[in-house]
Amino acid sequence: MQTSADGYVEAADPAVRWAVWDWGQHWSWDDELRRDFNETLRAVDRILLSRKMVEEGYLDHWARSAADHPDDPDYAFARRIGEVEKIVFSTGERGQFPWPRTRPAAGGLAATIARLKPEPGGDMIAFGGTGFAAALAAAGLVDEYQFYVNPTAVGRGQSLFHSVTGGLRLTLVRSRSYACGIVVNTYTPA
Predict the structure, then answer these.
(1) Per-residue pLDDT for 95 more than 90?
(2) Helix, strand or coil for residue 136?
(3) Are 29 and 21 in contact (CB under 8 A)?
(4) Where does the chain have alpha helices with state H?
């Protein structure tokens, strides 16, 4: 998840443009970070998504990007998003989805993830907004956190861990800085 330098995953003021990379076509991530992000997605066989993220156009956007850049190595992750299984979590109606390999979760977060973890295949990755990510963290369902720390402080906002009772001790697994100013910190729950 992208975070600000002061630890927020969402700025209190939506006008604050703090992320180095958004869904736009022109982002200032450097070549090394793009390569490493593509490597992360290459190991993934399943993506967990919040319904809100899907409704905001996440899958449509990356499907278009993959189609517009079929041979561009910077967009390998976009093609991978289309290739892997996607499971959409919703607290409301669980309808069908028009995207290939996309289905609604067959239950709540904890039960669904407990069923999925022992299945064969590569890694699972979760993409969603603050509420979805906070629910995963609060339920203790995250095996590894990757924080893409942006070189901007936002002052106030939402924390990924606002729902975690009693805090959460993390162990730093690796940290890598990039020329664009992002530092990727990878943690596991202690």
Answers:
(1) no
(2) helix
(3) yes
(4) 31-42, 51-55, 58-68, 76-83, 109-116, 130-138
